[in-house]
Specification:
Elements (H helix, E strand, L loop, with lengths): L24 E2 L1 H11 L3 H8 E5 L4 E5 L1 E3 L5 E3 L2 E2 L4 E2 L7 H5 L7 H13 L9
Helix pairs in contact: 1-2
Organism: Povalibacter uvarum
Protein name: YkgJ family cysteine cluster protein
InterPro entries: Puta_zinc/iron-chelating_dom
């Protein structure tokens, strides 16, 4: 939570937008946390849950994805029926920090669309 004010979003009402980002980079510490959560070695967790992404600009371990009916793909740890994180207590730091403030632009967009569509469950299609 931001120290600049009260949170202005509710993740429980979102279909998991941030979890659909194509590159969710994780650190060695994040991989170790997931390994402990699942009772695996760090090497096994890294092999099962991540892949190596390297370009001239980036050299990262990225969380694997799964198919999704709302977004094309989503984080492998996201429950696509319940629309929630299945490893919330062990989630990576990037997930803990998102959206880096007290506002989430996607949540504001979604809230606006739901109000104007008069449908609390509305999800804009891509």
């Amino acid at each position: 939570m931001s120290t600049t004010g009260k949170l202005r979003f509710d993740c429980s009402k979102c279909p998991g937008y941030c979890c659909s980002h194509a590159r969710i980079a994780v650190s060695d510490y994040d991989i170790e946390r997931l390994a402990r959560h699942f009772g695996l070695s760090k090497a096994e967790a890294k092999r099962r849950f991540t892949y190596h992404y390297k370009t001239k600009e980036a050299d990262e371990q990225i969380l694997r994805h799964q198919r999704d009916h709302v977004y094309k793909t989503i984080c492998r740890f996201f429950d696509t029926d319940e629309r929630r994180c299945t490893v919330y207590e062990a989630r990576p730091n990037v997930c803990r920090k998102y959206p880096y403030g007290n506002r989430c632009g996607y949540y504001e967009f979604l809230k606006f669309e739901r109000e104007h569509q008069a449908d609390e469950e509305f999800i804009p299609s891509a």
